[in-house]
C-alpha cells in the first residue's frame, strides 16, 4: 500500500492538519479509520482538544477481527506489531487473543478465522485451544462446499442416458424435472411446485497418474489464499491417480504435504508474514517433479518477487519447456478479488504459464480439464 507524501503528513498530524495537507485518498482514509479505531479511544485526546469530532470515519463499526484484518492489509509488518501491542497492552482490546469466553460466543466465519491466524502467536494455551475449535468449524464449512465442487469436476462427463440419486446442481435434468412436475402448475401464482428432482449420472473418469504441486505464498496479504489452499489440497488428496503436494513459502520453504490431509493442523502451523522468494519455491517444485509431462505446478501468489524476478521467469520457462503445466493464481478465495503485480504476471505468461484469478471451485474445474 502506498500513500502520497502529503497524505503521510496528514496521517501523522491528524484531522487538524487536513486544511494544510488536503484530503485523503481511499487507501489513506482506510489507514486513518484503522488508526482512529484504536487511538481514538485515548482519554487524553479529549482533554487536549484533539478528539476527532467526526468520529472514526466509519472505523467505529469495525469489530476486533475486522480491525486486525484491516491493519494487516494496510500497514507494513513493523507497524502492525506496534498497533497490535498497543491494542492489547495500552487499550486492553484483548477479546480476540485473550478471552476464551468471547471466542466461545462468536459465530465462526472466515473473517474471524483470518484474524485468528494472524494473532495466534499472541494467544495463551487456553485461548489457542478455543481458537483451534473455531478454525475446525470454519474449515469444515469450507470443506463441505469445496468437496462437492472437486467431486463434480473430477467425476467425468455427464451421461444423459442414465440418472442417479446423487444430487448435484450441475447434473440436474431440467427437462425431465419440468415434464414430471407440470401437473403441479398453479395458474393463479404462475408457479410450479417441484416435488421430485432428477439428476444425470456421470461416467467414471479413469485417471492416469498426475502430480499437482501447490506453491502457496504465505506473506501476510495472502492469508485468504493460504486458507483456501489448505482446504483445496485436502480435497485433492483423496482423488485416485493424483499425487498432491502442498508447499508454503516466504523467504523459506516449508513442505506441508504431510499435514495436507488435516487442514486445521496445517493452518495452525502456518507462519504468516515475511518476504517472498518465488523463484526458490519454483526451484523446489522442480525437484519434486517425477514425470514433467504429467505434472502441474500451481503458483498461488501476488507475484511480487522479493528475490530475483529474472530468475523467477527463468524457472517458469524451464518448467514449461519440459512440458510441465504452470498455473499462476493471483487469488484463491471465494471473492477471487485479486491484487497482484500485473507486469510480473505478463512476464510469467510470456514464459509459458497461464495466469488468472480463480475461486477454489474454478481451480478444481481447471485442473480437471487439464488432467486427462
UniProtKB/TrEMBL annotation:
Residues 209-368 form the VWFA domain. InterPro entries: LolB, Uncharacterised_CoxE, VWF_A, vWFA_dom_sf. This is VWA domain-containing protein.
Amino acid at each position: 500500500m502506498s500513500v502520497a507524501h502529503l497524505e503521510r503528513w496528514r496521517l501523522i498530524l491528524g484531522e487538524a492538519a487536513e486544511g494544510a495537507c488536503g484530503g485523503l485518498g481511499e487507501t489513506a482514509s482506510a489507514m486513518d479509520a484503522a488508526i482512529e479505531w484504536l487511538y481514538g479511544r485515548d482519554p487524553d485526546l479529549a482533554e487536549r482538544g484533539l478528539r476527532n469530532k467526526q468520529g472514526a470515519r466509519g472505523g467505529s463499526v469495525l469489530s476486533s477481527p475486522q480491525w486486525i484484518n484491516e491493519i494487516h492489509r494496510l500497514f507494513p509488518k513493523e507497524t502492525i506489531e506496534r498497533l497490535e501491542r498497543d491494542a492489547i497492552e495500552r487499550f486492553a482490546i484483548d477479546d480476540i487473543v485473550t478471552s476464551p469466553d468471547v471466542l466461545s460466543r462468536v459465530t465462526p466465519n472466515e473473517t474471524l478465522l483470518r484474524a485468528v491466524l494472524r494473532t495466534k502467536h499472541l494467544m495463551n494455551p487456553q485461548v489457542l485451544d478455543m481458537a483451534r475449535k473455531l478454525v475446525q468449524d470454519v474449515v469444515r464449512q469450507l470443506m463441505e462446499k469445496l468437496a462437492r465442487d472437486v467431486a463434480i469436476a473430477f467425476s467425468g462427463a455427464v451421461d444423459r442416458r442414465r440418472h442417479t440419486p446423487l444430487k448435484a446442481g450441475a447434473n440436474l435434468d431440467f427437462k425431465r424435472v419440468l415434464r414430471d412436475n407440470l401437473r403441479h402448475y398453479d395458474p393463479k401464482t404462475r408457479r410450479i411446485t417441484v416435488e421430485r428432482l432428477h439428476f444425470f449420472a456421470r461416467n467414471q473418469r479413469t485417471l492416469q497418474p498426475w502430480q499437482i504441486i501447490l506453491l502457496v505464498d504465505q506473506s501476510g496479504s495472502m492469508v485468504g489464499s493460504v486458507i483456501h489452499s489448505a482446504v483445496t489440497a485436502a480435497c485433492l488428496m483423496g482423488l485416485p491417480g493424483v499425487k498432491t503436494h502442498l508447499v508454503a513459502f516466504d523467504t523459506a520453504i516449508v513442505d506441508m504435504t504431510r499435514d495436507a490431509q488435516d487442514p486445521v493442523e496445517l493452518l495452525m502451523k502456518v507462519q504468516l508474514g515475511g518476504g517472498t522468494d518465488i523463484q526458490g519455491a519454483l526451484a523446489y517444485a522442480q525437484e519434486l517433479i517425477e514425470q514433467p509431462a504429467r505434472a502441474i505446478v500451481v503458483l498461488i501468489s501476488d507475484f511480487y518477487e522479493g528475490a530475483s524476478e529474472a530468475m523467477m521467469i527463468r524457472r517458469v520457462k524451464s518448467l514449461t519447456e519440459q512440458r510441465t503445466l504452470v498455473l499462476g493464481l493471483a487469488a484463491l478465495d471465494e471473492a477471487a478479488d485479486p491484487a497482484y503485480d500485473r507486469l510480473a504476471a505478463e512476464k510469467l505468461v510470456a514464459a509459458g504459464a497461464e495466469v488468472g484469478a480463480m475461486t477454489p471451485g474454478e481451480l478444481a474445474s481447471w485442473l480437471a480439464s487439464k488432467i486427462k
